[in-house]
Structure formats: C-alpha cells, structure tokens
Amino acid sequence: MKFGLFLGCNIPLRRPDLEVALRYVYPKLGVELVDLEGASCCPTWGTMPSVDLAGWCSVSARNMCIAEEKGVDILTVCGSCYGSLSETRHKLLHDARLRDEVNRMLGEIGKEWRGTSQIRHGVWILYKDIGLEKIRKSLKYTLDGLTIAVQPGCHFLWPSEVYVDKERNPFRPRVLIELCEAMGAKAPDYSTITDCCGTGGLRSTNLEKSLKLFERKIKSIKEEVDPDLVVTSCSSCLLQYDGSVKTLKDKGRINFEIPTLHIVQLLAICLGANPDQVAGLAVTSPEEVIKKIRGEE
Amino acid sequence: MNNLDSDLPTPVILTELEKGVIEEIKEHGGENIDRCIQCGKCAGSCPVALAGFLWFNKRFIHALTLGIKEEILDIPSPWACVSCNKCTEICPRDVKPFEVVFALRRVLVEELAMPTLTMEGLRTLYEYGHAVYQTTYPETRKKVGLPEKPPTTLAYPEALEELRALLRETKLGEIGLIPME
C-alpha cells in the first residue's frame, strides 16, 4: 500500500508535530508514504474557492496531477484539504465544460488532470485499508480506562456525495468512535457530536462568535461525556480546540481544561512514538493523559 | 406554456435587472438556486445561524431569488460560512446552499466587496503557495525534528513559479486583486 502524503498548510507550518505523527504511524502499519513534491495549499475556502470556480479547480487539480504523475492516491488528514480536493475532483468528474476549462489552464503549465488519483482521508485508510484488527495488534500502549469525546469534523462527513468513503449515517458518525474503542477507550456518542468547532471563515470574520460556538460545544462535551481527551480527525478542529480551551479558561469562561489530539497523534503515542515529537506543540497540555497512557503515573 | 402553468399565480415579478442576479449566481456555481422552497432545513443546520449572525444560507437564497444584491454587498456573513456543507447534505431539494453562498462570494469579489483577510490569504497563496502561512514555521518544524522546509512549494521554487503562472491564468489574474508580477 502506497499513498501520496498531502500536507496542506496547517500541518507542516503550524502543527508539524502532526506531520511527524503521520510519518511515524502509516509506515509502522505497513503503508508507504511518498511526498508530493511542490504541492501547494489545497486551496482552502477563503482563497480561490471564493474567487473563481474554475480557478479553484485548477489549483486543486495541479495538486492532484502531482499524485497522478507518481501513480498514487492522495492521503490527507486535514478536513479542509480533504473537502476542497474531494469537491473539485467530484466537479471535474461530472462537468465536462469545467474539466476542459481547467485542463486548458493546466496546459499553460504543461499539466493535464486525468482523474486517476483518488482523495482519501487518512482516518478512513486506518479504518478500512489497514483495519481495526491490525491496529489493535500493533499497539504498545492501549487506552484502557480512558474516556474520549470524538470530533470527526465537518469535512469528514459532508457533502457525502463527493467523498470516496462514507459513514452509514453522516449525521451519526461512527468511524472515529470505533477507532478509539478499538484502541481500548470509551468513546460515547453525545448530542453535539456533529456541531462545527467554529473555526474557518467564522473565526476570521468574528472571533467572539466563533468562541461562543466553541464554548457551547465544549460545555456540552464536558457535561455529557466528561472526557480525558478530545480526539479529532481534522487539523483545523485540532487548532481550534487546542487554542480555544486555553483562551476560554484564561478568560474565566470555563473552569476546566481538556486536551485535544488528532487521532494520528494519539495512535503514534500508542504505537510507541516519542510524545514530545508527535504531540509536543499542543497549547493545552496533554501531558497528564499521555503519562496515563504510557503508565508513567 | 401549458394550461396548468398559466393558471399558477406569479408571486413576484422580477425586472430584467433583478433576473440578472439569479443568472449571475447560477453562472458562478449556484445552478440549483431556483429549486429552493424556503423550507429552512439549511438554516436549522447552519453554524453561521447558530453563532448568531442575522444573515445565513436561507436568507441569502431568499434575497437573491428576489433579485436583491446591492443591499447585501456589505454584509460580512457570507465570509463567515465555514464551508461545512451540512446544508448541502440536508437540503431536500438539492439546492446545494453551500454552492449558492460561494457563488455569492464570487459575485461579491467582482464588486471588490471582500474582507482584508481574504486578500491576505490570496496574497500568501501567490507568494508562498500556502494560504495559511506562518513566518515562524522553520523554528516550529526544527523543534519536532523536521527539516526546516516542508516538501511543498516552499522547498521547490520551480513549483512555486508554476503555481504562480497558473494563478495568473485564473480570474485572480484578470481582476487584479493582488500584485502578481
């Protein structure tokens, strides 16, 4: 099994500890990762998608071309990248006029989009291609006794039409829950599980409204699940949770702290990676939880 | 027109100018806008509505189908959309409200009615190949033992030039939002 690792922006530039985790976890579970040299931003929602439909698709298609040239499918664990790339791929597959326009633009830089590389979410690759059994058998540390609140993230779910892999019910996601359970944790469902974390355009347009939305969700998580840890499949959710828990605590709007890890970071720790390298850039410290996982209490 | 259609009342008569607004939205990717029956399922699932903005998917669709554009140029909330696509997932009429909101953004950009942060993202996309850019990234990466530059446009100048040439081919090059020498 071989995939092209699509890094995006958030992971390599803001949370490269997650990049270290990616490069640790997949090879350890028998998946070869190859770099997509010269790839750019997906492009994310506030940029080309907001300016020009064909221009959005062309920048996205350029990234896909790099994977096509290497004959690999794309692996990403960033919600925005997964959404932007999957949506443009879907549009290009179903709209011949758009495809021609995009290939005309790509022709100017000597490229052509053929649609041979699929866009895969790394969490689906863990769940479907690698499988829960193999993951369970590979663990150095399990999550017994730990309670987790999962945050699948919007782009893991919707619009299900454009994604290769789909939850049975996109409003009651199960994949991330089952992964955490396979690792030994309790990961109960809760009422606001599919609520947005409040980042993206909302955060850049109105920080206070973004925080209020997040506050609503984190309080429901505390009340209903009271978890040791939040686990997400999206790098944008990771940044919002990790940063905003601390902000709300500092402002005295909540009186608790819950650390957040990306599922790939958590898995890296359970497979035996150095926690400082795969989760060392968190603002809300996951140190206590990691000690518990590694039996260092 | 068959008899059945001619018997139906016409609730709003749009002028040619107002009809142009719907056509503009359709051209920019909101093809299904006139399938909307204002049922409100999109609003009920929208984080922008939940966060307390007065304007969100359903109301934008309503305004646009009435041919209203000038009045909504300066409303910030089209830019607050988190692109979650819950509305598109849930819409029983396949309107794809997300596509309409983004078509609206594209129409607004042509009128230069956009936030400065959007300009900043476009500028760093052109300059570095990354919309989310952090000057401190080399130190951050070193801290966790990674090479200073990720294997993206940041490490491959010829790939960055290629991306820039492509961006100049898009509408971004045409409307001159950012310097693109």
Automatic annotation (TrEMBL), chain A:
Alphabetized InterPro entries for the sequence: Cys_rich_dom (IPR004017), HdrB/HdrD_reductase (IPR051278)
Keywords associated with the record: Oxidoreductase
Keyword Oxidoreductase: yes
Residue ranges annotated for the Cysteine-rich domain, each copy included: 5-85, 148-240
Listed GO MF terms: oxidoreductase activity
Amino-acid biosynthesis as UniProt keyword: no
Highest taxon above the source species: Archaea
One Pfam family named in its UniProt record: CCG
Listed name of the protein: Heterodisulfide reductase, subunit B
Organism: Archaeoglobus sulfaticallidus PM70-1
